[in-house]
Design a protein that fits this description.
This protein is α/β, with parallel strands linked by helices and 441 residues long. It folds into two domains: 140 residues, Aspartate Aminotransferase, domain 1; 291 residues, Type I PLP-dependent aspartate aminotransferase-like (Major domain) (Aspartate Aminotransferase, domain 2, 3-Layer(aba) Sandwich), CATH 3.40.640.10. It is built from 14 helices and 17 strands. The protein has an eight-stranded mixed β-sheet with strand order 2-10-9-7-6-3-4-5, with helices on both faces. Strands 11-14-17-16 form a four-stranded antiparallel β-sheet, covered by helices on one side. Strand 4 and strand 5 form a beta hairpin. Helix 2 runs antiparallel to helix 11, helix 4 runs parallel beside helix 5 and helix 12 packs parallel to helix 14. The protein is globular. Bound molecules: pyridoxal-5'-phosphate. Pyridoxal-5'-phosphate binds next to helix 4.
């Protein structure tokens, strides 16, 4: 058995030393020391979540995204994080009979599959490939068109109607589209504006709800210039507010699924959803909310303290961005030095307007032929004590997508291990690749 220290480039979570633990402790003490905060914090909260936090999130998002129309608290619903909220979205706005199909960018964040299955969409998820501009809009439109023409539809569903009762606070969408528009997990790809607009138009045309996991947007940096912070992207939810005269109905076609997991810590379990006022209200009417109030009421009061004092913003600017940027640069340099000469290719960094945009948590690496991700991961684990994200994991189950490059691809995360260990991990990976390429057989 190997005696090497374990290195984990699979973990898609922040290293504990990057988290604002001390600030959170102070925020908790402050919130719990003030009866006007702790009393509501310890009680059942409103269905839509802690109002001061909704207000502060709305201002924070409006400033960050420089939205044409500022968000207001009514557009925000507090959630228990992006994962919990995906389940809520599906429980309120989909129906396993009326909602026909779920279309996911492929490769996709693998831990959403179970939520779609739980909501009744087992066997009805389809992968749509992405290129350097993001989810392939033409492929999506083509697949949806084909489906609606009946060539690809589900025979025994033709005459089925809703199994959920009609409620005025919600609408049931016919399709769901899932994507991570900025610094996608696992590919690192950021969608261009024109692609984002195309997706919104497609969603309107086919009565689809686009669920955007906008979980990495705040973690972006310029890879070339340390002093330059790239401007933020237009979220699809903002595009839906203005494109071609605005949303097609009061519910709109996009929900932005945000989270503090990557900014404060995954254990925080607080997030937010933004959509039209009617959508945000509808989301707050999920059974769990009307009984218990929005999730994480007490933690919401702590997070609110961090936002109110600008502490979170400062933490992002002074800790997460500089450390993320350095780790990202370290992994890119190590891959260029040790893996590119062996024929591995990266697709995570894209050029925008003379600056090199970087961000998120991971890079995506294509292995040289004839290696497969599965054999490289196995060998890396057995001989190098190195854990990697095997491309197959990010394949949409049962997808008939022809994009199978992912079986030759790896996801490498750079926010868990420090720079030194990231570089050592890449060196160990290069050792495995070289061994498999040149010494096997
Ligand atoms: C794309 C994406 N969505 C959702 C999550 C999970 O978010 P949360 O911790 O808020 O449930 C992650 C975490 O890795 C992610 O990468």
């Amino acid at each position: 058995m190997v005696s090497l220290e374990p290195i984990d480039l699979f973990q898609g979570r922040p290293a504990p030393d990057l988290l604002p633990t001390e600030h959170l402790k102070n925020a908790a003490v402050k919130a719990l020391s003030d009866k006007s905060v702790s009393d509501p914090g310890l009680g059942y909260g409103p269905d839509e979540g802690y109002f001061p936090l909704r207000q502060n999130i709305a201002s924070w998002l409006s400033a960050f995204y420089e939205t044409q129309q500022p968000a207001n608290a009514e557009r925000i619903c507090i959630t228990g994080g992006a994962s919990q909220n995906l389940n809520s979205i599906l429980s309120v706005f989909t129906d396993p009979l009326l909602t026909r199909m779920v279309w996911l960018v492929e490769p996709t964040y693998h831990l959403v599959f179970r939520s779609f299955e739980d909501a009744g969409f087992h066997g009805r998820m389809r992968g749509i490939p992405e290129d350097e501009e993001g989810m392939d809009a033409d492929a999506l439109e083509g697949a949806l068109g084909l489906f609606e023409e009946g060539e690809d539809s589900i025979p025994d569903m033709a005459n089925k109607t809703s199994i959920k009762p009609h409620k005025s606070y919600r609408k049931i969408y016919r399709h769901v589209i899932y994507c991570v528009p900025s610094f996608s997990n696992p590919s690192g790809t950021t969608m261009t504006t024109s692609r984002r607009e195309s997706l919104v138009r497609i969603a309107r045309k086919f009565d689809a709800l686009i669920v955007c996991d906008d979980v990495y947007d705040f973690l972006n940096w310029d890879l070339q210039d340390v002093k330059h912070t790239p401007s933020s992207f237009q979220r699809l939810v903002d595009i839906d507010r203005t494109l071609d005269g605005g949303p097609s109905d009061y519910f709109g076609n996009v929900v932005s699924n945000g989270t503090f997991s990557k900014l404060i810590g995954p254990g925080c379990r607080v997030g937010w959803a933004e959509g039209t006022v009617k959508f945000a209200y509808g989301l707050s009417q999920a059974g769990q909310n009307i009984s218990g109030g929005a999730p994480c009421q007490l933690m919401s009061t702590f997070v609110n303290e961090l936002l109110e004092g600008g502490i979170l913003e400062q933490h992002i600017a002074t800790v997460l961005i500089p450390h993320g940027r350095r780790r990202h640069l370290a992994i890119l340099a190590a891959v260029k030095e040790h893996l590119s000469p062996l024929g591995a290719m990266m697709s995570s960094d894209i050029s925008t307007g003379g600056t090199e945009l970087g961000g998120g948590y991971c890079i995506w690496l294509r292995l040289p032929a004839p290696l497969t991700a599965a054999e490289v991961c196995r060998r890396a684990s057995e001989t190098q004590n190195l854990t990697l994200g095997c491309g197959d994991v990010f394949e949409v189950p049962g997808s008939r997508s022809s994009e199978k490059d992912l079986r030759r691809s790896l996801r490498l995360c750079f926010m868990w291990e420090n720079e030194e260990r990231i570089v050592e991990g890449v060196e160990r990976l290069a050792y495995v690749v070289r061994e498999l390429l040149f010494t096997s057989n």
